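3.2 Worked example (two chains)
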Amino acid sequence: MEKRTLDHASDDSDHSPSNQKIAVEAGAFETLGRSELPPDPDAHLSEAEKAAIVSSICLSPSQNTDDPLLTRHPAQDKKLLWKLDLRLIPWLCLLYLISFLDRTNIGNAKLDGLQQDLHMTSGQYNAALSIFFVSYSLAEPLTNILLKRLRPSIFIPSIMTVWGIVMVTMGLVHNRQGLYTARFFLGLAEAGLFPGINYYLSCWYKRSEFGIRAAIFFSAAAVSGSFGGLLAAAIGQMSGVGGKHGWSWIFILEGLATVLVGIASFWMVYDFPDEATFLSADDRRRVLRRLKADQQSSAEHENFNMSYFWASVTDWKTWLYMVIYMGADGPLYAFSLFLPSIIAAVSTSAIDRRTHKLTSHLFSLATNPQPPNCSPCRPTPPPLS
């Protein structure tokens, strides 16, 4: 295999974004040893500058001044992280906010007469809620494979546009069979977002930086619930417009908004770090070096291999995490899907129902536990063999 090299920027002062990829070809990182790093964009620093940098970083017992992680400027790292956070996190949070709003707005639609208009019993309504999770859970394990075969800037906007269209069709159904079908395909389309975004973020951030950003991303679910009821109440006032019920307009308008955001995401969702047009060539190298030094496989452009899949399936920790996540998701979806009906049972005013739902979600957001901050002096991962 022909060895590929990473181009150095000829002038360090040139930080204009470039459309040229940095080590984009599959296998480019395999030309390096597992413990080797790509070329250092900060290699131009003098020994005195490097010594000042090393002295400003607290060392763990397992680190030494020869550690390649220490040949970096902390100010550059902070500036780089700030740039990544501003470009990635807000839009990704918006996508998950819309995703959670679309999958749970059926609870608000019920208050506007969905169950009565479709002549559904309570059991049939609950089946419509549950069928979403059947297709969602079946498709979810396969979505990251598609994410790797396609590109994030294609895969994520595409599935979002598809589920927006499904949401619109949900507002056009006339019987429970149509609702069942729409909910099934909604779960199928939405399945790729949550696992895909978590994998996507791991391709940009070190493990010590990933937790807080994943928590912020997940908190978008509480934000969606805090105003979803008020939005549904406003849209529900359109009942009778175009011969449609209020609950129909909830699905149609929120679905159209999803389609618009999905189309915008073709320009707002970026691919992996080596293709990021908003980063300079040096910053791309810095991101890749940080991942490589953190022993992240995502820095190596590894190809999909079924042995990786079976290794995860047979790992007991995978099943333990599944049980833990079930414990978190059970109350979350029970709260999101049934809270409108619970509040309706104890409130006589429609305004009271929406206000109670708003305050409950804001409280859950304010008390959402965040992962502890990871110490910058944590021990480094064990050496790779």
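3.2.1 Second chain
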Amino acid sequence: MSNGRRLRGPIVSGPSEKANFEASGRTLAAVPGDSTLIVVMSVTVLVTLVCFVIIVVVARRAAPLQKARRQAMAAMCAQRGLVPSGANLGRDFSMLPSIERTGLTNAFSSPDGRLAAADLIRSEGKSAAFFSVLSFTVPGVNMPMVSVDPRNMFTGAVVGGAPTLELESDEFDRRFVVRAKDRRSGMMLLDPGMMQWLLDCDHVSFVMIGDRVLASVNRATEPSHNPSEPVEFELLFKFYDGFLARVPAILPSEYPAVQSPR
């Protein structure tokens, strides 16, 4: 019995053998971890390749639509004497912050810069918003800031900025949010004739500062939106024609343009 007990020694009999055993255990335990890492890396590479292929396919499919849109815009703008103007974005769209002007594409303007049109891609966090914009001059006036936006969950949630202005039209107040730095100027600009015109040009937003107006249409909200057909500019040019025709006659005398020093 005693011999039997002596033959049953410990599984690990010394420090060096214990170290070898633990080292072997660590090596064996590491194998599943290495396999998992290889699988994760393979999946990551595969997903990256798939995403790259999708981006390439989408880009190739979008290219003809973008070309068709630019050609249609060029034809529409040419009827109003507008020519490609990518080099004059700072002049034509001075009301946009410089960082937003980097999102302008398909830009056209008149030689004097009084009328300009472009597409605008605005970054909104992880997504992007697509607009069509029209910038134009209203001769003879120098207005404090007035803005009009179709009422929705975004315009209703704006905090800060110019105070909101309620007009004497329940329908207009229900459909639009008006902000004005100076209440009196906002009331003068948005007389009954101008309010009715804005109601007729639904989906158009605008801001006016000095003698300049920046009008825009969110292309995602336009029911008839088609990437290759710039129907938004038909609406914007219609808005432009009607806006200039309906500027109240009293504005140039009440808010006259700043005279250039001689």
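3.3 Remarks
The longest helix spans residues 15-78.
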